[in-house]
């Protein structure tokens, strides 16, 4: 139960904190003539990295006893790109 509450807190904190920043910055710095294409590309890359993290988290959890730490570290490193 503690891990579920921690995950919910993480999602809420990310959504209220740094989660929407890429979309705010993207709408401000892109010129209007490429805003649609560049916004679509950035959103695709964001969802693609999220799906890679989701698909590999189970693999990392089964790989070692400290898999939870490794999967969280892996997710943080991918999201910082």
From TrEMBL:
Keywords: Membrane, Sugar transport, Transmembrane, Transmembrane helix, Transport. The keyword Transmembrane applies. InterPro entries: MFS_dom, MFS_sugar_transport-like, MFS_trans_sf, MFS_Trehalose_Transporter. The chain crosses the membrane at residues 6-25, 60-79. One of its GO terms (cellular component) is membrane. It comes from the Eukaryota. Residues 1-81 form the Major facilitator superfamily (MFS) profile domain. It is found in: Membrane. One of its GO terms (molecular function) is transmembrane transporter activity. Pfam families: Sugar_tr (PF00083). The keyword Transmembrane helix applies. Belongs to the major facilitator superfamily. Sugar transporter (TC 2.A.1.1) family. This is Major facilitator superfamily (MFS) profile domain-containing protein. It comes from Vigna angularis var. angularis. The gene is Vigan.01G333700.
């Amino acid at each position: 139960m503690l891990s579920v509450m921690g995950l919910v807190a993480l999602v809420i904190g990310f959504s209220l904190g740094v989660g929407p920043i890429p979309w705010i910055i993207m709408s401000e710095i892109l010129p209007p003539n490429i805003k649609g294409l560049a916004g679509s590309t950035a959103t695709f890359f964001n969802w693609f990295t999220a799906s890679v993290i989701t698909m590999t988290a189970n693999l990392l959890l089964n790989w070692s006893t400290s898999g939870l730490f490794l999967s969280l570290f892996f997710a943080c490193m991918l999201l910082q790109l």
